[in-house]
Predict the structure of Dephospho-CoA kinase.
Amino acid sequence: MKTIVIGITGGIGSGKTTVANFFKDLGVPVFIADEEAKRLMSTSIKLKEQITANFGSEAYKDGQLNREYLASKVFNHKEALEQLNKVVHPAVAEAFLEWKNKQDSTLVAYEAAILFEKNRQEICDYTILVVAPKETKVQRIQHRDNAKRSQIEARMSNQWTDERKMKLADFIIKNEELIKTKEKVQDIYKYLKNIHKI
Ligand SMILES: CC(C)(COP(=O)(O)OP(=O)(O)OC[C@H]1O[C@@H](n2cnc3c(N)ncnc32)[C@H](O)[C@@H]1O)[C@@H](O)C(=O)NCCC(=O)NCCS
Ligand SMILES: Nc1ncnc2c1ncn2[C@@H]1O[C@H](COP(=O)(O)OP(=O)(O)OP(=O)(O)O)[C@@H](O)[C@H]1O
């Protein structure tokens, strides 16, 4: 039977992982691209070599991915970010396909910050865009990661605006009140189960 892929995306701090976790609670297996990217960047010899060649040996500290260093190199330099995306994204895409084939579920979810930007909706049957006001997103990330506003805004500037992404999404979740977000996830889940007779 065909596996139905729900793509979950949204800007930094919108609440993608929160939405993905609500799907997980309903039994939907979730692939988190950010996490898989970091796992591969820490374990794949080929990726490690490519990243070190492009960004220098500081990209790894004691064998571990130096996230702060890489973030400082890429989020204010479009070409550097493109360079990193070019080596990491194909590896993540391959890992997703392998993962998908192993799932014993008709519905699976693919959560990624960068989805429409890289035309990854092509691998999804449905897409969900998670949105929240800019100030809310900044405050969530400041609170969660103790990040500076300038660092958050640098990442935002490498992502499409919500308005641009809204035109492409099948479902939009306005993630403000958590209980409403949870209900919306349940509604989408029921709708998909119903139309696919799962
Ligand atoms: C530079 C890195 C090491 C910084 O790691 P860090 O733990 O600080 O951030 P993390 O990966 O958890 O991402 C947090 C948020 O940053 C933003 N972000 C991450 N990667 C990108 C990107 N390529 N383009 C735009 N925004 C991005 C997203 O909003 C994301 O949700 C990491 O973001 C990275 O390797 N990014 C490039 C690979 C990538 O695109 N990963 C995302 C999914 S494939
Ligand atoms: N509706 C909400 N109300 C209050 N806090 C929320 C809500 N949604 C998410 N949060 C909190 O905001 C932070 C960011 O949420 P989450 O990690 O789900 O976002 P994300 O889009 O996956 O972030 P990132 O882009 O950094 O990966 C988390 O600390 C989360 O607990």
Remarks:
- The domain at 1-29+104-198 is CATH 3.40.50.300 (Rossmann fold).
- The mean pLDDT is 96.
- The pocket of adenosine-5'-triphosphate (ligand 2) is lined by residues 10, 12-18, 34, 113, 140-141, 144, 175-176, 178, 181 (CB under 6 Å).
